[in-house]
Amino acid sequence: MESYRELVIRPMKESHQKSETGLYIHYPFCQQKCCYCHFASSLFERELHQKWLAAIRGEIQKAAASFSDYVVIDTVYLGGGTPSLLTPEEVGELLASVRQNFDTQLNEVTLEVNPTAEVERIGDWLQTGVSRFSFGAQSFDPVVLRVLGRDHTPEQTRLLVEAAHRAGADNIGLDLMIGVPGESPRSLEVNLEALAELRPEHVSVYLMEELENVPFRKIWEKDPVSEERAAETYETYRFSLEDRGWFQYEISNFASYGYECQHNLKYWKYQPFLGMGPAASSHLSNFRWTNPTGLDDWLVFLDTGKPGFSEFVELTPEEEVRECLASRLRLKEGISLEELAWRFPEVDFSAYELKIKRLLDDGLLQINDGRVRIPSEKFLVSNSIISELIY
Ligand code: SF4
C-alpha cells in the first residue's frame, strides 16, 4: 500500500518545477497556560522540550526525504506555544537543519516571541537568520492584560521591541487582542499611543472569540462583550490603524507597505505549506493533513510512521475551489476570477457566477478589475458571506 507521502508526491511528480512552499514549525510548550487559549500547548518541562527538539529534527529529515525534490522552502514560521523558549542556539540548529535538508530560498523567517522573553536573546536570534519577530503583546492596557491573566507587563513588550530595533530588526509585528471584558476607550488610547511610539511594521488585531471549552468562559459569562460592542471596537481599530499608516490587507492584519507577513499570505492565497510538530497542518498539491495534536501521539507517529493524523484529505478540484475562495476572500485584494478558472480548469463555475451576482446586488461583494472582494466594512460578517458563496 502506498504511504501517505507517496500519495501526496504522485501529482507533484508531474509538475516540472519545484513549488515555493512555506514551512511552519510548531513549538508546543508555554511557561503558563493562558485561560483563554485553545492552541495546542502544554506547560514547559525541560525533558519534554529536549524530546521535542530531537523529534522535530527527525520530522524535518523525514519530510525532506519525501518532498525536497518538489519544494523550495521560502518562508519559515516558528509558532506555538511559545517558541521564544527556544534558545538562539536551538533556533540556529533548527534553521540549519531546514537548510541542510531542503532546497531553501528563505525570504522570511518569523519567530513568535512572548514578551516575557529575555531581552538579551533578541540580537542572537537575529544572528541565526530570524528576520521577523511577532510579539504577542495582546494589549498595552494593564487592566486588559490582568483580565487575560497574562504573565507580562506592557513595559516588557516595550523593552523587547526597543531592543529588537536596536539590534537591527526591521520587520516587527505586534499582536493585539480586542473585544476583551474590561476593555475601555482608554485601552484603545494606550494601544494606539504604544503603536505610535514603537512603530512596528505589522499589527494583528484579533477579536476575542471561540470561548468553548476554555476556563476563560467563566470570566466572559460574568462580563460578556456584546457583538455590537465588539464590532464597534474592531471598526475603530480598523480606521485608526489605517489613519496611522498600517494598511489592512487581511481581516485581522495590517502592515506598512511591503511588510505583509509572507508566510501567512501562503495560507490566505492557498499556496503550499508544510507543517512540522504536533497539530501542525500541511497542504501540498491537492492534499491537506494535520499532525496528531498531543505530544505523545505525535512522537508515536514519528517513531512508527503510522500516520494517526487528526485529518488527512485528498481534495477534489471542486473542494479546492471552495477552500481557495474561502481563504482568498479574507484578503482585502480578494481573488481574480480569471486566475481561479486558470488554476482549476476542470471546474464548472456557472453556479458561482449566479451566487456572485446575487451577493454583488446585495452589496456583500464588490468587483474591480476582475477581482472579487468582500468590502472592508463587511469583514466582520465574512464567514456568512463566504458560506453563502461556497455552499
Ligand atoms: S502563551 Fe500563547 S500559546 Fe501559550 S498558553 Fe498563552 S495564549 Fe496559548
How large is the count of helical segments? 15
The CATH class label of the largest domain is Alpha Beta
* Integer tally of domains: 2
* Bound small-molecule species: iron/sulfur cluster
Order of the strands making up the biggest sheet = 9-10-8-7-6-5-4-1-11
Low-pLDDT segments: none
Shape summary: globular
- The CATH superfamily name of the largest domain is Aldolase class I
Radius of gyration: 21 Å
CATH topology of the largest domain: TIM Barrel
Strand content: 15-25%
Question: Would you tell me the structural class of the helices and strands?
Answer: alpha/beta
Mean pLDDT: 95
Main β-sheet: number of strands, strand sense, barrel status? Answer: 9 strands, mixed
Q: What is the annotated CATH architecture of the largest domain? A: Alpha-Beta Barrel
**C-alpha end-to-end distance:** 34 Å
Q: How helix-rich are the residues, as a percent range? A: 40-55%
Count the beta strands. 17
Describe the protein in words:
The protein is of the alpha/beta class. The protein folds into two domains: 4-267, Alpha-Beta Barrel (TIM Barrel); 317-391, Arc Repressor Mutant, subunit A (Orthogonal Bundle), CATH 1.10.10.920. 43% of the residues lie in helices and 22% in strands. It is built from 15 helices and 17 strands. It has helices at residues 4-13, 46-67, 88-101, 121-128, 142-148, 154-166, 185-198, 216-222, 227-243, 262-268, 295-304, 317-328, 337-343, 350-361, 382-390; strands spanning 19-27, 29-30, 42-43, 71-80, 103-113, 132-138, 172-178, 202-207, 247-250, 253-255, 273-276, 281-284, 287-290, 311-314, 335-336, 366-368, 371-373. A nine-stranded mixed β-sheet has the order 9-10-8-7-6-5-4-1-11, with helices on both faces. Strands 12-13-14 form a three-stranded antiparallel β-sheet. Helix 2 (46-67) runs parallel beside helix 3 and helix 14 runs antiparallel to helix 15. The chain is globular. It starts with a helix and ends with a helix. The model has no long low-confidence stretch (mean pLDDT 95). It binds iron/sulfur cluster. Iron/sulfur cluster binds next to loops.
